[in-house]
Structures are given as structure tokens and as C-alpha cells.
Amino acid sequence: MILQNVLFGRVGVARSPDRFNRLAGLISTVFCLLAGIPAVLMAQNPSSKSDSLAPIHWYRGNLHTHSLWSDGNDFPEMICKWYKDRDYHFLGLSDHNVLSSGERWMGAQTVEKRAGKNGLARYRKVFGNDWIETRVRNANTEVRLKPFNEFRTLFDETERFLMIQAEEITDHFGSLPVHINATNLQDLIKPQGGKSIRETMSNNLQAIQRQQARLGRPIFAHLNHPNFGWAITAEDMAAVVEEKFFEVYNGHPSVNQLGDKDRPGLEKMWDIANTIRIEKRKLAPLYGIATDDSHNYHGTGGASPGRGWVMVAAKRLTPANIVNSLEAGNFYASSGVVIQAFSFNRQEGTYSLQIQPVEGATFRTQFIGTRKSRDSKDLKNVGIVLHESKELSPTYKMTGDELYVRVVIHSSEPHANPSLKSQKKQAWLQPVWQK
Questions:
Q1: Mean pLDDT of the region 270-297
Q2: How far is CA 228 from CA 146, 252, 257, 276, 433, in A?
Q3: pTM, 2 dp
């Protein structure tokens, strides 16, 4: 739905995401974007008086994570501990075509090969002999991989940390990968296939929608790393009606984040797709998220954690609240920049934000969009910088010639765990537009 209205509300003090964000819990107000309804109707038909008065909190989370249940290289408990210890608020474990459920044993030699020579010893040291289960089969030691409904009990903590069940539906068309994450699902969704890239995308997204309707629970679906294997084009992203979200930043170093001399990077793809969706297909624009896509938890090589995340403004730390806020666009994507507040004033056409200052750092905010009056045949005119600011409280006033406006903030600070050469911290706000 279209982000058009503004709520000026209180921010509850939540545990800050990490050291650079420790001041975030102290801010007392936040602008939250709502979808096409008056702000006063945010809590429609509340179940109790307290629901309608609940403050808004910022919650930090990663939605793309792998463990020993598929091709990650550590136990899910070790991974969950990593994120919780670093003040994340929620985590979706999204292993390939599998839910961490049922009985699963892994040979100790396989564990040592994947989790490192001391992988099992580290696991035992952190969680103790009483937690770890082993057995001997055919003279080989095996370790039981704990299922989601068991290990989540170690980490779930009211308003502090939340585990959300997820899956990376790992499909393909020919040799081209088509990967879509489903967050807060209950049942495994098998790859649906299709007769084209677009049909494969659509079939998998429809399968997610069917489970959501059947269970009556919100499930968040997003397209993963479209440039991985150069599989999915901006035109594909524009064409699939069921698609609403994609990874504008993925921390895996092999996903062709920046494109190449012949193919656009993910940000340019975002602009191309949204231009087509709004102008030609009369669809809402795509929203962008940031994820780790973490596989490696020993060192910083490969796809390691702590690179990209979403900051969600929600009333409570529950799966439904997190997913519903994501669906409504009440979030931003980040690889390090913290935004204290943001708003789009529909009547005035102003897009404003407040960046959290960092000592010694400077910020460059770009308001990016596509003009209606451009030469439509020239892709260079798609996704241009409409305005640039070095202020901590930048604002852009729309002229009426914009199809949409989105925001990217560049920090002068280097990323602590870069996936790209000379990478700096960034943040991305969602596109807004006027009907």
C-alpha cells in the first residue's frame, strides 16, 4: 500500500541495536509512515485500550540467515547467541528449502569440517553437556541438531529478543537461481518452479500467500539477491505483481551488488523497476530491505554476520507486529547509519528525516527519483539525484514532476565488516509518491 500519511508518536525506550546506536533508545519522538489511512486510525478496532496507546519502538533484525541445517557453518544456537549478544531484537533463520524441525543428526566429522576443528568444542563450552546430545552410530559420533521449537526457548525474551521461523525457498529456472524468503511461516514451502523467471517468482510468492490465507497469520515475503547469478532483471522485478520487497543490500560478497559494466547494480535496478511499475503498470513501488545472508560465523570471510539489517518501527516485539510493520513500510534498511525519525507529509509533499549524529562522521543524504518529464528512452534519467544534503535533518520538497522519491544516506565511516571494497556505512528509506 502507498505510504502517504504521517503519525507523530511517542517512542518507547528499547534496547539499542549496538554501540553506535546506543542513543537511539533515548529519542522521544518518531515519525512513522502509514499506508493510506488517517494517522488516528493506526489502531483500528483495538482489542484493548492499551493496544491503541502502545508506544512505538525501534527493533533491529536480520531476516536472511543460514545454519548447519543447510549451508551455514555453525549451530543455530551459536548463531542466535551471536545476534542477541550484539543487541539485535529479532532474527529469522532461513535455511534453504528446510525448516529446522524434526529429528536431524549430523556426524561429528561433518561438523568439524564445516564448523571448524573446534566447532563442537565451542558449542559444548557455551551450552554445556546437558544441552548437547550425541550418539554413536557405526562407530561414528553424531550430534543432534536441535529443532527451532527447542532452541528458541533459550533466546526468546519479551521485548528483548524474538526468533521468527523462516525459509529461503531456493528455486531456479534452468540454471538461473530464484530465491525468495518467507518469514513467519509455519509449514515448509517446496520450490514451485515455472516456465520462466517471472512465472517461477510468481508461483513461489503465490504459495506464500496461500499459506498466509490458510493459517490467518502474516508472512513476510521478499526476493533475495536478484543479481546473484545475474538471474533476475529489473524488468522481471517490475513485472511480478505479487512482489513487494527485495534486498537492496545483501551482505554476501558474491551477489553482484554493484553490477558490472554491462548490468546495473541493485540500487539502479530498484529505480528501473519502480519507474516501470508506477508509470507503465500502475503498481506500487518495491520496498528495499538489507540483510546479512550470513553463512560464515568464523572470521569475516565469505558471507559473515553484522553487515545489513532492517530497523522496524512497531508497537511490540511479536512476529505479527514485526511483519505487519514491514508490510506497511514502517522500517528502513541499514548497514550502519541510524535514523532517528523520518516522515512524508502528503499535503506538503515534503520528505524529511533526522540522522543520528556520530562524532567524527559526516553524512551525505541523496533524495533519488525519476522525473515524469524525462526522456523515457534514456536509462540515465531513471533514478537521478534530485537533491543532496550534508545536514543531519535533510528535507526534500516534491515539485510534482517526480514519479517517486527514495532516500539513501552515505556515512564517511567505514563499515566494520565490509562485503564490498572501501565500503562505507549507509541507510536506505523507502520510496514515496503522490497519486
A1: 97
A2: 30, 10, 8, 22, 29
A3: 0.89
